[in-house]
Fold this sequence. Notes:
Two copies of one chain form a homodimer.
Chain A: H1 5-28, H2 35-41, H3 46-52, H4 56-71, H5 81-101, H6 109-115, H7 117-143, H8 151-175, H9 185-197, H10 203-213
Chain A binds a DNA duplex (18 and 18 nucleotides) through helix 1 and helix 3.
Amino acid sequence: MALDGNTLRTRRTVERILAESLRLFNARGEANVTTATIAGALEMSPGNLYYHFRNKERIVEALFERFEARIDMDPQPSGGAAQAIEDLWLYLHLVLEAIWEYRFLYRNLDDLLARNRRLRDVFNRIIDHKLAAVDALCADLVAAGAMRATPEEIRVLARNVLVVATYWLNYQSIRKRRDDLSAADLGTGAHQVLSLVAPYLLGEARAHLDALSRPYID
Amino acid sequence: MALDGNTLRTRRTVERILAESLRLFNARGEANVTTATIAGALEMSPGNLYYHFRNKERIVEALFERFEARIDMDPQPSGGAAQAIEDLWLYLHLVLEAIWEYRFLYRNLDDLLARNRRLRDVFNRIIDHKLAAVDALCADLVAAGAMRATPEEIRVLARNVLVVATYWLNYQSIRKRRDDLSAADLGTGAHQVLSLVAPYLLGEARAHLDALSRPYID
DNA sequence: GTCTATATAGGGATAGAC
DNA sequence: GTCTATCCCTATATAGAC
């Protein structure tokens, strides 16, 4: 069924609102961006903004849904230990990039999830998913003889991977001035996360990982 | 010089305000606690509260100063590898306890430090201090033959220790319901942090650390 | 769909009496 | 030192015209 002109225009406006909101939220923090600011940046009236979104929380929810779709990916099942290391590396970068794009969600994650039950549940499902993915990747590496770790060690390790990946940008934004934060810091983040895994790797795999992360040392 | 009755009363009132603010901030998050709420909980008028603190931020700053004094401790310099492991364990518990007591600071750390330059600088000095302490502890362990790690590995490791220690409670508060969070979760946190160090430890030291953290596995 | 104008509410903070 | 009353500002959200 074809879309008429007005429907198309509505969609474009919704898109503009979401894009600008994301930009402003990431730059200043969601709590520090008013609906009037968003409307103003788009040279649009507040009334018009509220025509498209019932309230500010709906904008946040819409952005969260996109984030959810964006970050919901699985590492490629791989053949061979060397390939598994590469896959881990790539997967980590993709995940960190998604977090970077929606980094406003990670500032004040506590408050955001505390005030919105739905977001909280979804976010926890994402974490569960990621924990399982890391766990599976490690199990594969152990099976391939590229890693030595007990299932218990892997569980604890996976949790640390999640903590560091989740909060890396927050930590960096404290250590540098927030404005200086850039996508380049993702490389350092990936390095930090992979260094959690490194000491459990054996021979070839360990060397391979070291070679991959070397450029990102800082 | 002796204090007169009024001065003593003032001090007591200041203490009551700080204690109640800390309690409420930790329970609900600083942004979700109004000055009227604090005053009400103390059965005190808002005007009176403002007699003792020029504004809400001053209350936060006063609490932060206490946190700073509370967390500013050094690990005991130790003799012997086994002793060093025990020291690390104890030190970590003390630090995590301090964070627990002032956990409201760690929710919305970004916003808090972004809006208050002084707090930001002080907090970064604390982190610098802790990074140096972890670094020194690891260097001691290496010197004692209880750890194998390059200086570069130690630097990256120390950073991961800081990230996990700093954000552990935030992670837990997402994973559990925030109200269910308790001081007992500090044990799990200590376990997570120490598991970062464990794979670099050798023989005795490793076994010793495993034995210490075993009760906290969850 | 978009605008202008405005209602509404909450929270930080102050004035002035006691 | 403490209270009551209230100001003031900001931000969300709505009403109604175009």
